Amino acid sequence: MGRRTDATGPMTPLVLLLLDACRWDYIDPETTPFLWKQAETGRHYRRVIPSPGFCERTEMLTGMSPAESGFFTAIGHNPEQSPYSGLKPLLSVLHGLEKLSTSALWRKVLRRILRQAMRRKGHGFGPYYIPLRLLDKFCLTEDYYDHRDPRAFSVPSLLSLVAEDGFRTHYDSFTALGMFNTKSDEERLDLAVKAAVCPTTKLFLVYHSAPDAFGHELGPDHAGMKTALARVDEQIRRFYEDFLARRPDARFMIVGDHGMSQVHERVDAGAEVLRIANELGLRVGKDFFFFLDSTMLRVWFETPDARSKLAPAIFESHVLGSRGRVLTSQLAESLHVPVADRTYGDLIWWADRGVLVWPDFFHSPDAHISGMHGYDPSHADSHGTCIVFGPGISARQVETLELRGVFEVARELLIDE
Questions:
Q1: Fewer Cβ in 10 A, N or C end of the chain?
Q2: Dihedral sign from CA coordinates of 48, 52, 53, 59
Q3: Distance between CA 174 and CA 12 in Å, rounded?
Q4: Of residues 1, 26, 42, the one with CA closest to residue 397
Q5: Model confidence over 112-160: pLDDT tens digits?
Q6: Nearest CA among 322, 374, 320 for reference residue 347
C-alpha cells in the first residue's frame, strides 16, 4: 500500500468507466480485442455480482449493499420529498387530458411538456410513464441528491474520499437519473479526455450506455450485439489512447455493473392486480396504489381492508405465482435488500428471470424490449465484469467480485501511489 498524499504531492489518476450492463461473457478476443487484452494482462474480476434492484452506482461508490444504504429501486414512495408534492390538482387535470386520446404520441407530448416544466424548476425527476395522478407519491432514491453533495450518502464515498485528500473528481461524464445530461457516449468520453489535463483531478467517473441500450433493444442473444460491442471496444481503445496522451500515469477500471437476460415472456402485472382488486371491491388510489418496475410489482396498502384482502390474493394469483415470487422478509434479508421499508412497497412481487413486467412505468408502451436486468443475481447472465489495468497493475485473474467490492478496489487504487 502506497502513501497518502495531499493535492501538492504526486498523484496517480484513476479512470472508473461504468460500462452499463456489460455482461461478463461479452468479453472475448474476437468481439472485444482491446478489452480482452487488458483483461489478460491486467487484473480481471471475471464475474461481478450485483445486488437485486436498480441502485448499482451506490454499491460501487460506497461499498454498501441496498440493505445498508437504503437504496433498492430507482424510484420510491416519499411524498414529502416528491418534486410533484403540492401539484395534485394540476396532475389530476393532466391525467384527465391524457385520457382524452388513446394516441401514444399525445401521451408522449403531454409528458414531455411536464418533464421540461419540472426541469425549468431544477428537478430532474421526469414523469416517465407513471400514472400522473400518482406522481406526487414518488421521488428518486439514490439520485435524489447529486452524488457530490455531502447529503447523498450516509458513509464516505469515492467522491468524498478524493475531496478529503484535496483532489477533484471529474463527474460531468457520469450519469444519474437526476442529471440534465443529454450527452452521447462519444461526447462523455471526449469530455473526460479534455478534463484529463487538470492536474488536481484524481478520479474520473465516466459512463458508457451502449451495452445497456443495445441489450434492451436487441437482447443479449441477438447477433447484432457483437457488432455493437465491437464498436464499444474500439471507442474505449481510442479513449484510452487519447487519455494516456494527456495523463500517461493513469490507471483504468472498466466496470460492467450487471448483466442482461433475454426476455422470453411478458406479464401484465398491473392488469392482474387491478383485476384482483376489482373482484375484492378495492380502489386504486384510495385503498392501495402500486408501481411497475420492469421486473417488479410493488404495492402499498392504504387501508386495513386492502392489506388483509389484497396481499393474500396476490400470493395466490396464478398469473403472478407462475412467473415470479413475492419477496418475503426472509428472502430480502438473505439478498441484503431493505426489509419492511415502506419506501419500496408493503408487498413486492419479483419476476423470474426472462419475465418482463409489461407495460411498466418507465417505458413507452410502444417500445420494443428484448433484454432486461434486475433479476435474481444468482443467475450468471445477471453478472457483469471488472477489468483493472495501468501502471503497477500486474496480471491476475479473480473469479468473482461482489459489485459493492468495486468500492474497495477503487479506494485502494486511489491511495496506492
A1: N
A2: negative
A3: 20
A4: 42
A5: 889 888 888 888 899 999 999 999 999 999 999 999 999 999 999 999 9
A6: 320
